[in-house]
Amino acid sequence: MTKEGQINLVLLGPPGAGKGTLAGFMVKAYRFLHISTGDMLREAVKKGSELGKEIQRYMNSGELVPDKIVTRTVIDRMSKPDAAYGVILDGYPRTRTQAGSLDELLNSGNRSLDAVLYFKTSEEVAVKRLSGRLVCPRCGRNYHVTNIPPKKEGICDTCAVGLIQRADDRPETVRNRFSVYEQRTKDLIAYYEEKGLLREFSGDRTAEQLFEDIDSFLRSEGLIDDDPYEG
Ligand code: AMP
């Protein structure tokens, strides 16, 4: 599958950059493990615990959940056996503090980051994507009313249940999430640029085009060494 059987990638980009969709393509093509902090936090909210309620307050307003809470969820997930062969981190780190925690976590497991894929995306494209996004409440699969429509309108292809709009995908919240992201990730981008890990892609391209760009990059770096479409 991959050159050394282990690869650690970070997907960076504002909400609406297509990180989740791209991660889905990469999981299918390379069988990587996809770790999405947004998905894990939504799961925690569903459980309805006190912590879940606290998390929900941040998420619904588009603000970031405190570093400590998010890092704890990532540490727990990374310690599971299925994370041993490499992961795609989607939505984490989002702050410079989280990047430091990730370095420590990887170092302690003798792992290292191979690349940070940064999907630079315009606000206009991001808002359009998110305001048309529909999600399956059961399996978490993402659709879009025009870009990625389900086979049957409003129904998940896999689970046959009704699709919903995420509370934080309302246009006012989307704009706030976008600007929170921009403010908080400036440092992060500079940090990874300095380390020589940052690789910029245009998040305004379609998911298929973007996947082709990423696939070429991973091959040119020797991180992938067989046919992504096999199996
Ligand atoms: P996402 O699904 O990645 O767009 O994340 C949805 C929401 O979850 C964000 O708007 C934040 O409130 C929260 N969130 C996800 N990842 C993080 C993170 N790494 N740090 C802080 N908050 C996060």
Q: Structural class given helices, strands, pairing? A: alpha/beta
% residues in beta strands: 5-15%
Distance between the termini: 11 Å
Average pLDDT score: 89
**Which CATH class is shown?**
Alpha Beta
Task: List the secondary-structure elements in sequence, H or E.
Answer: EHEHHHEHEHEEHEH
Tell me which ligands are bound. Answer: adenosine monophosphate
| Helical coverage, percent range | 40-55%
Number of domains: 1
Shape: globular
CATH architecture: 3-Layer(aba) Sandwich
Which ranges are low-confidence, i.e. pLDDT below 50, for 5 or more consecutive residues? Answer: none
- Total number of beta strands: 7
> Given the structure, what is the number of helices?
8
Radius of gyration: 17 Å
Largest sheet: 5 strands, parallel
Strand order, main sheet: write it out.
2-3-1-4-7
**CATH topology tier name:** Rossmann fold
User: Considering the protein shown, what is the CATH homologous superfamily?
Assistant: P-loop containing nucleotide triphosphate hydrolases
Can you offer a commentary on this structure?
The chain has helices at 19-30, 37-47, 50-61, 67-78, 96-108, 123-131, 171-194, 207-220, and strands at residues 7-12, 33-36, 86-90, 115-120, 133-135, 142-144, 198-202. It is an alpha/beta fold. The chain has one domain: Rossmann fold (3-Layer(aba) Sandwich), CATH 3.40.50.300. A five-stranded parallel sheet has the order 2-3-1-4-7, with helices on both faces. A two-stranded antiparallel sheet has the order 5-6. A hairpin with a 6-residue loop joins β5 and β6 (142-144). α1 (19-30) packs across α8 (207-220), α2 crosses α3 (50-61) and α4 (67-78) runs parallel beside α5 (96-108). The mean pLDDT is 89. Adenosine monophosphate (AMP) is lined by residues 15, 37-38, 41, 58-59, 62-65, 70, 91-92, 94, 98, 168, 177.
